Every structure is written in structure tokens, then in C-alpha cells.
């Protein structure tokens, strides 16, 4: 935790932290995008260099954590409370006019980056959920026909092997948590039978790469759970029947900020709590063991490598990469190795807006630990889990008592990775 920072160096007033990473598109790993509390950090050369893009160019306010997507040609998509902006070149993001007037709550794309889904929220007196689809990497979206009055889909996830199968998780008009499923590309949806009485919040974590009915979710547990966990303790849940029922695999002491799966039986979860760190299962979630003490802020598995977001420390790592076969993770980029905004004409949003933001961040990132008055109290937790990140947990499986609470009765017909 930072005790005293240089004046103005916090940029938007929040502690600097990486929150989400996307890699791709497709099997390529040339484009990497990290969402941070101070804007976006983007690499277009496989991680050899990273540049800063400020929040202002994507028209979202300080303190807001936007959902991200990556299109098929490496275009970055950013959801905001008033629609969606995207950029293939890095100088001038443009709006997708068909989504103006909606709040874009979450984004997900298939492995190719061609199919992109957006969870929408209308801006009516009583907001309603809706899901839009793009078949051209996010260049144009078509909102689906079904509208859910009083419902909010906080996360949406597509099955990598079956892009017409989509899952959503959120709250209904009565405030109850639930999961919805579509099997026709988001045209028709039905709520599943799963109920989540022991959870305060529910976020999809991902869908298995080859098994479209295997879905993972993170349940933020209500205060006073069986193991004495606080309100940010989180359980990783898995469904093998398309979201009809869920069973707990593992839980964290603190918030789950990261989840990733390789599709070969390996799962990772992680969190910033010192008791959690980075944990891995090599047996499809039967058991988990701690493999690194990293204060995990997000995770992503892509093309034989695990990407790990880290909490800010002066001269510390922003993003780690753990390549298959290596004994441990290595630092891909430090905070002080991020360079300034791309060289853009002064008439473009990036050229006009980002230099002033970068000046304050550069002073902070280049500071020594003494300059920043860093203590060893550990990084503060972000206000809520990012939509695609999962969890850190104590080793072993979660208590069976909670598992029972999530495998509840089927009442209605069936109706979020890595």
C-alpha cells in the first residue's frame, strides 16, 4: 500500500493497478491489452513494447472500469455507459452508432475474434438487459430481439467451440442472482434452474474450450460464511450441464481477481490476498495448490502461456508471463517500462488528450520505492472484481456445505474466460 505518493501522480485519484488482460486475436499473441485503473496499456508486437492510452479517448469517466474486447484484426473494443468505442489504429477510436444509448456492461469474443457479444443495459427509468452480436470482429453490432425488463447481465461468455452458445449471469427484476443461456447466437434466451442463495454477487469466469456445457462462475460470498470468510471471499463454481446446476471447486480468503483454464485439466485461480496468491489445479479442479505468492489482479491463458496482472509497486511488474515448461513466471513488462501514448496527430483524440495524463503517470512509474513511501501492507483491493477475472483461494477443495447450496432444484427450462 502506498503511504504518500508524489503530488498528482495518482492520475485519476485511484491506486494504480492492472485489472484485466486480453491476448490475441485467434492463436496470435501479437496484441495484448491491459486495462488498468489509469487507462489502457497496449502492445502490438507480442509484448516487446507497451504504450499508454488514456481513458479520455474512450470517453469513460475516472473511476470507471470498462469491459474490453479484442476483434479479429486486433481492434480494441471498449464498453462505456453510453455505448461502445473501438480502434484498430491506436489514434482515433470511433463509436459504434448502433449501440449509442445503451450502457455496455460486458464484452466477450470467440477464439477467432470474429464473433463478439455485448451485454447491454437500456437507459430507461427501469433499465432492461439485452445482448448484441457482431459477426465481423466488432465493426458492427445487431442487438438481439429479446429484452429483459428489470434484469442486468453483469457478465456474458461465449463457448469457444460453439459460438452460437452464449451464457449470461446477473440479477433479475427481484434482485436474485441467476444464469441465462442462448443456443442460437443470442436470439432466444432462457434462465437456467441454478440458484445462488449463498452468494452476494455472481460473475461468469469462462467456458471450457472444447466442452460447451462446462461453465465456470465466481460467487462472491455473503458475510458470515461457513469458514468465517468476509464479504469478499469468493468461490469458484463449475457447471457440467450448461448452467443448470453448479458445484463449488475452491474458494479464496479474499477476492478472486483471476481465473484461467487451459482446456487440458489445468485451472488457475488467484487473488491479491497474501493468503491466496496464484493457485493451480492439474486435475480438472479436484485439488488446488499454491504455485506462486503473486498478488494476482487478473489471469489469462492463451496459446501456451499464462498471463498474470500484478499490483503496483515502484519499479514492479505490471504483467507476468508463465510459458509452458518454464519453472516460474517471468516479468513481461514493468510499470516503468510502459512508454507514452502513440505518436498521433494533434487533431486526433490520442494526440490531443493523452500527453497530459502520461506526464503524471511517468513520474510515478519512475519513482523509487523511497520516493513513493511504499509500505509492506499489501495492495488495496479494487472495488469490485473485473468481469473476466477469477479468484485466488486456499489450497484444497471448498467445504461441501456450500456446494450443496449451489446445486439446487430445477424449476425453469434452460434458458461467462479465458
* Distance N to C terminus: 29 Å
Helix content: under 10%
Number of helices: 3
Which structural class should the secondary elements be placed in? mainly beta
- Mean pLDDT score: 85
From the alpha carbons, calculate the radius of gyration and give it in angstroms: 20 Å
Characterize the biggest β-sheet.
5 strands, antiparallel
The CATH architecture = 7 Propeller
CATH homologous superfamily designation: YVTN repeat-like/Quinoprotein amine dehydrogenase
Number of domains in the coordinates?
1
Strand fraction: 35-45%
CATH T-level fold name: Methylamine Dehydrogenase, Chain H
Sequence stretches where pLDDT stays below 50 over 5 or more residues: 1-11, 372-417
Count of DSSP strands: 29
**What is the CATH level 1 assignment?**
Mainly Beta
Overall outline: globular
Description:
This protein has 418 residues and is mainly β. The protein is built from 3 helices and 29 strands. The protein has helices spanning 349-365, 369-372, 400-406, and strands spanning 18-24, 31-36, 39-43, 51-53, 68-70, 76-80, 83-87, 94-95, 103-109, 116-121, 128-134, 142-143, 148-149, 152-159, 162-171, 177-182, 190-191, 199-207, 215-221, 234-239, 247-251, 258-261, 267-271, 277-281, 289-292, 298-302, 305-309, 317-323, 330-334. The strands form 7 sheets. Strands 9, 10, 11, 12 and 13 form a 5-stranded antiparallel β-sheet that branches. Strands 1-2-3-4 form a 4-stranded antiparallel β-sheet. A 4-stranded antiparallel β-sheet has the order 5-6-7-8, with no helix packed on it. A hairpin with a 2-residue loop joins strand 6 and strand 7. The radius of gyration is 20 Å and the shape is globular. The protein starts with 17 loop residues before the first strand and ends in a 12-residue tail after the last helix. Mean pLDDT is 85; it is low at 1-11 and 372-417.
